[in-house]
Batch of 4 targets.
Target 1
Amino acid sequence: MFGLPGGPELIIILLIIVLLFGARKIPDLMKGLGSGIREFKKAANGDQSDDAPKKTDTPS
């Protein structure tokens, strides 16, 4: 019944996004989306090296 959007549908969707947000805001939105996906992947993989301080063995 409902399939994936084709070429004309994608063009209409992109035009609506440009009208809603403006051409200047789209790079900022994509940057935020990319960083959110990156953080999600880190959390999903259990990689929390940025959050926790690194332990180093220093002779005392």
Note: The chain has two helices and no strands.
Target 2
Amino acid sequence: MDIEFKGKVWYWRGPAPWFFITVPEEQSRDLKAVLKLVTYGWGMIPVDARIGKTAWKTSMFPKDGRYIVPIKTSVRQAENIEEGDTVSIQIEVH
């Protein structure tokens, strides 16, 4: 399953601070439909992600009825991404 969408980069200031992009509602519903086939537990979904020319492996996880994609520091630096930027992201679900 491949999905592509645009989303705003946001920062979570929790115990382990991190940057994320939230998957839109429609694509989150699609992901929930295949969840049992792809999750390795707790709703986590392993994916290959790409923003611009930068690709990485990560896992999406559920939050507030949708999914969120963590954006690594190396990706943000390579693509010059800051909090609040809207970016296009491609996701390939394993």
Note: The chain has a mean pLDDT of 93.
Target 3
Amino acid sequence: MQVQKPWLSLVGKIKLTVMLVLTVSLLAVFIVLQIPWSQGVFILGVALILSTLVTSLICASIEKGLDALELGLQNFKDGEFSNQLVYHRADQLGWLCTLYNQTAEQLRKEKQWIHQRELMLDKVLESSPQALLLINSNNVVVFSNLSARNLLSSKTRIEGMSLSQAFENAPTELQQAIQLGQDGLFNIHNTAEEAQTWHLATGQFLLNNQQHKLFILKQLTRELNRQEVAVWKKVIRIISHELNNSLGPMSSMLHSGQILSQGLDEPRLQRVFATIEERIKHLTAFVQGYGKFAKLPPPKLEQIDWPSLINELAQQWQFIAPSSYPSTPCYADNMQLQQLLINLLKNAHESGSSVDEIHLAIESHREGVVVSVTDGGQGMSEQVMANALVPFYSTKAAGSGLGLALCREIVEAHHGYLSLHNVYHQTEVAGLQVKVFLPYYSSSNTTK
């Protein structure tokens, strides 16, 4: 509510009151003493002039203090707390001005503290991995962070745009989830990656007397994969423990049986012992392979020398090598990356593809490097592709089902992702391409 300034100030009221009291008092004296009106008017005029001068002198400090307080309160109204009042007389107005200065200093400090918190909050929200989107009641975007703009495939800020304009390049699944406006999970199918699982949380807020809606989108793909792999690792550790407990005594008993049968001339018994020994060795190697997946160590990052790495791989497998290499340094665990590519090249050779159809490519992207292995085999059906990265799943008679699962574990330990794509020639499947994205790291993040 706006309050109008009174037409007569406090000092003016004091002066008017003094003049009225003086006038009434002199008139009463004139009447009692029967002073002629000609003399009375002169005396009254002189008295009023003197009283005005005396009152002005007395009220000058009051008027100065009140003017200072008025100016200070106008600054408060405008949100300005840095000005200090210079009225310091030893009276009640001086005390009020001192109290005003102390209040202004306290408010100034709190305003500065709130400003710093807003800057910190803005920095946190802008760099948050969760996509944040705030819209008002007119469906106009009020705030969006970097993750939200990346999710919406927008290269510029979208504040001030309508929701429909901001979602022009967004995935269809995302648009449907936002329009539905309900908390829950939804999937985004991207041709460049595997299907992504997202969680949407919403909230209603009243800001500047206007309803706003906040959308918080969090990608759960990596977290779900991590939990799934953690369960598989626990199962593998339990199975490995039980198998190792059985393999030790079996190997010892086999050795004892071979010693006891040395004097017997029984070829069939020797074949039985040889078969048991071969199966024990195979089972031991089998358990060790699963143990490698269950106990994958954290990657030790170092700068990758791509030509040297490709030369080492070429000594083990035949393939068409890349024609060029990224100029931006890439940091990863060299041994784990080599194991990853060995597994992918091994799968490419086992796909039935000819050697000249197996290609290894390394391409530089804005945020990382993409390594792809392409073969000319039969590709994968939808069912096989959906389960190819799951531990124990294999279409090979002698396969362990851990090759691609171990590859994905290595890639995700480097904060990257692995995806599978069929290669088409016209309308027929003409091979499989496995893409591995590895983000760039600075040398300060490497582990010695």
Note: DSSP finds twelve helices and eleven strands in the chain.
Target 4
Amino acid sequence: MAVPKRKSSNARSGSRRAHHFKKPIQLLYCPQCSTAIPSHVVCPNCGYYMGRPIVEVAPK
């Protein structure tokens, strides 16, 4: 079984984990109603996705 010969340093493990932080959500604006929504998601305000109505939204 493979076992490390020496202890890996804090710098080495820290540089390996450099990309493990949380990233903010990519927000886009709906072209129909200008609501900020995450990318690749149907707009909860108007029900459009990629310029087409996908979901019928009840009027408020």
Note: DSSP finds one helix and four strands in the chain.
